[in-house]
Design a protein that fits this description.
Blueprint (H helix, E strand, L loop, with lengths): L3 E6 L12 H9 L5 E8 L20 E5 L5 H4 L4 H8 L11 H12 L10 H14 L4 E6 L3 H13 L2 E6 L16 H17 L2 E4 L2 H8 L6 E3 L18 E6 L9 H13 L3 H4 E6 L4 H9 L6 E5 L3 H10 L2 E5 L13 H6 L5 E4 L5 H9 L2 E4 L4 H16 L15 H12 L2
Parallel strand pairs: 1-2, 1-4, 2-3, 4-5, 5-6, 6-7, 8-9, 8-11, 9-10, 11-12, 12-13
Helix pairs in contact: 1-16, 5-6, 6-7, 9-15
Amino acid sequence: MDSKKVLIITYYWPPAGGPGVQRWLKFVKYLPDFGIQPVVFIPDNPTYPIIDKNLVKEVSEKAIILRHKIFEPYRIASFFSKNKTKKISSGIIPNQKKQSFLDKLFLLIRGNLFIPDARIFWVKPSVRFLEKYIAENKIDTIVTSGPPHSLHLIGLELKQKTNVKWIADFRDPWTTIGYHKSLRLSNYASKKHKFLEHKVLNTADNIIATSKTTKKEFEAITRKPIEVITNGYDIEDIDKQDLDAKFSLAHIGSFLSERNPAILWESLVLLLAEIPDFKKYLEIKLIGAVSQEVLETITQFGLNPYLNNLGYVSHSEAIAHQKKSQVLLLIEINSRETRSIIPGKLFEYMVSGRPIVAIGPSHSDFAEIISDTNTGVFFDYSEKEKLKNVILLYYNQYLDGKLKSNGVGLQKYSRKSLTKELVELLNK
């Protein structure tokens, strides 16, 4: 009996690096174990802000990969400033007060000319190509993964033209995502985003969200069935790591200016003043793209002597750092809109065996997961004293050689378990 074929339309795919690629790379890895043949449609010549060539080795040999050319305006914009377009493309938007004329111009163009995003020019050619492919290869189910949310418009048109079953997977929300307000949207652009979001949510047969809050937000817009399938962790082939000699607090991933946690820097300054030996052991490890505002704030707090800014590393190196750092930092923007965000790295953090210090808005979805799995402590932005006390507790455990995390109930977040949930939805 032939495997059921499912067409997956995604923008981020190896050699793309960063969090956007992991979700469907791992689903595709495990789908064949459940009798599903993944057919993955990706751009042939994309402009990825982050490259990780090591991930190419992780692509399942059982996947059928389709490529189709894409035109991206970022290529033209990069002629004026490659660095700025790369940052905006990866979601790193400069602090509003520090935006240059060029920053403001790029954001104005990005937010108002390209709706819903700069990959909009891939929609029409992809629909023409895939309409024919679906008919010739007996595809009855498609999945679109966004952001970029332009990919959901490919699903929308294919649904209308072929009547395939369509599942829209939202790795992040659409109009309520944290950076949406930073795009300098006109009234027209804002309404157009909401119109397209409404149309996608009410045309797809099924919707997948990665958090309970996003599901709740979508339920106010549509009556279509919505499933929550979070991100997760994979069993990575990484050797056991010796722990850092220093008391390392490691943040892994993009460190946006809006995530700049004054309560963390203030807590560390207080501990440096109160504990004579703390300065001998403290290390602040930043791994990934870091905004200039974060680096300037660290300097202003006098924490530069303890900073180890490693920049972007491959996914496998990031996993190694997760396993050897003393404490892992997870920081989300302090706003109502970001309560629904569950950073993908959380799940890899949880199986690292290292305790997590998480800072975010109160009632965050990821606070519940950290509490339920006993993998660390969550703080909202008003809990500086509590944060300082927990860092001190972890520091004393580090000195005694007893600092570790004792996670519970982690198996349900494994990529294979989550793929099983996806397969149940695909087979409905």
